[in-house]
Amino acid sequence: MHEEAGAGLIYWHPKGARIRLAVEDFWRREHLRHGYEILYTPHIGKSWLWETSGHLGFYKENMYAPLSIDEVDYYLKPMNCPFHILIYKTQVRSYRDLPLRWAELGTVYRYERSGVLHGLMRVRGFTQDDAHIICTPDQIEDEILEVLRFSLAIWKALGFEDVKAYLATRPAKGAVGEPERWEQATASLRRAIEREGLSFALDEGGGAFYGPKIDLKIKDALGREWQMTTIQFDFNMSERFDMTFVGPDNRPARPYMVHRALLGSLERFFGVLIEHYGGAFPAWMAPVQAVAIPVAPAFLGYGEEVVRELAARGVRAHLDRGDERMNAKIRNAQNQKVPFMLVLGEKEQAARAVSVRERGGAQRALVPIAEFLAWIDVEVRPPTLP
Ligand SMILES: [Zn+2]
């Protein structure tokens, strides 16, 4: 962060950006494999958009002052939803087109008082791993179950197994939307949790005025709970934007809309991820996956060859060209928590091999390069969900 350039705004340096890229690539691939389409939308929108969505009515204190462009006010987006709805409304949608699952890594800006800003955990600009599910009432139960399963599988693949659900229901006052819809939505949330056998707590009356939701809290390696995933119904925006689909009876009907963010914000997720792994990221995320350590300058050339071969296989490999002694280089790589250290000397060069030290301490001498490539290929492959 650079206070002089603005509080609560995050800069991703090369190694952090590497980890984010690995996570984003995994996230996008799995969303596409699970029936989502990916959207990109603008960062600013005219005031009518935010008046229609209701944000200027109930969320204005969290939005930044408008920019005036051609004498019209534009606001930085605090949420992606209205943009997704505009795309929805470009066509007449039939029940046959539904469900739609539209995801976006969308960067949003929200005003937070400077006193509550806190590292990566509470910021003013962040990227949500957002999605909107738009479906018919008949589809809602399966869609919710699908989202919940998908979320749990993502968390597991990222190394978090301890997940607890919180179900927030209709508030006593001010709720919008027909009571039957609230009932159906809440029942579908509850059944999904029960079918997945998740332990959960009921937050009676704790839902937003626009719909019930499930929050998932995950536990990190230190036993701390973090609220990350939200699966939130919205009965408000579908009304305000008059979203419809044509039903089997040829009449317009109101679809269900669900907002969901799995990781929440990438910035905050990264804060939790660093703590969870203590910096020792799984090999598929690690910014540097293998470091080549020549024992003397004479083996720099061989080191270059090894790194080139690894890079050609897509492994993030680095050659330590420093003039410290070998032990200092190994210590340095240990401190950096690099998963694989490859010691290269006379014997290794003669045998076209590498001597491997793993981050966890295991060692294997003189592994032929081809064999190491096959091994690391598996280690650095991102997980694939069922
Ligand atoms: Zn949304």
Notable traits:
eight-stranded mixed beta sheet, Rossmann fold, alpha+beta, 12 helices, single chain, BirA Bifunctional Protein, domain 2, binds zinc ion, five-stranded mixed beta sheet, 386 residues
Order of helices and strands: HEEHHEEHEEHEHEEEHEEEHEHEHEHEEH
As a percent range, the share of strand residues is 25-35%
> How much helix is in the residues?
25-40%
The kinds of small molecule bound in this structure are:
zinc ion
Strand order of the largest sheet: 1-5-6-13-10-9-7-8
Question: How many alpha or pi helices?
Answer: 12
CATH architecture of the largest domain: 2-Layer Sandwich
CATH C-level of the largest domain = Alpha Beta
Tally of DSSP β-strands: 18
Q: CATH homologous superfamily of the largest domain, by name?
A: Bira Bifunctional Protein, Domain 2
Rg over alpha carbons: 25 Å
Overall geometric form: elongated
Biggest beta sheet summary: 8 strands, mixed
Uncertain ranges: none
| Overall mean confidence score, pLDDT | 96
CATH topology of the largest domain: BirA Bifunctional Protein, domain 2
User: Whole-Å distance between the termini?
Assistant: 38 Å
- Give the number of domains: 2
Structural class computed from helices and strand pairing:
alpha+beta
